[in-house]
Design goal:
elongated; 5 helices; three-stranded antiparallel sheet; 53% helix; single chain; alpha+beta
Length: 172
């Protein structure tokens, strides 16, 4: 038997390899942690770059950044909060509108902008709408406004009705 070993104990030194220096292990762990932190920074930078590229694309295609930031219950009905930043000036403009306001906006300008006659967001005929429907509408209404802004840009600028709806100064 080996010194310090009892019956039935094995010598694991050959199975585990040579003893590891603790300071070497700490250096390796620090390097791995730094690598993980570096990867998180790289991922964050990529995400920010993607967001910046999307912003630049919106400005180029639409002449504005239009974002619907959410929906809110106001006096028993739902309103959607719209934040618009124009390419010129960069100031944020905020507006709040009900779903029917979007439909009326569409009716007032679809011909002028060459949009399809039928409003592209379905109206649900329920008395109360679920949060999931409202969240879905946020995305579809935002896409609608961006498409309308892109069509307006191709035709020389936003019509007054769209400027009023977004609470932005008119181009004239």
């Amino acid at each position: 038997e080996k010194a310090g070993g009892g019956a039935g104990e094995e010598d694991l030194s050959s199975a585990c390899g040579p003893p590891v220096d603790v300071s070497t292990l700490k250096v390796a762990l620090d390097a791995a942690a730094k690598s993980e932190v570096a990867q998180r920074h790289i991922d964050k930078a990529r995400s920010e770059l993607t967001a910046a590229q999307e912003t630049q694309a919106q400005l180029a295609n639409h002449g504005a950044i239009i974002t619907i930031t959410g929906h809110f219950e106001v006096s028993g009905h739902t309103e959607y909060r719209i934040v618009t930043v124009l390419a010129e000036g960069g100031a944020e403009h905020e507006s709040m509108h009900r779903f029917n306001d979007f439909r009326e906006l569409h009716e007032s300008m679809f011909q002028q902008l060459g949009l399809v006659a039928k409003f592209p967001v379905a109206k649900e005929m329920k008395m109360f709408h679920s949060a999931s429907l409202k969240n879905e509408r946020v995305g579809t209404l935002q896409t609608y406004l961006r498409d309308a802004a892109a069509a307006a840009k191709q035709r020389g600028g936003m019509p007054q009705t769209l400027c009023d709806f977004l609470c932005v100064p008119s181009a004239q």
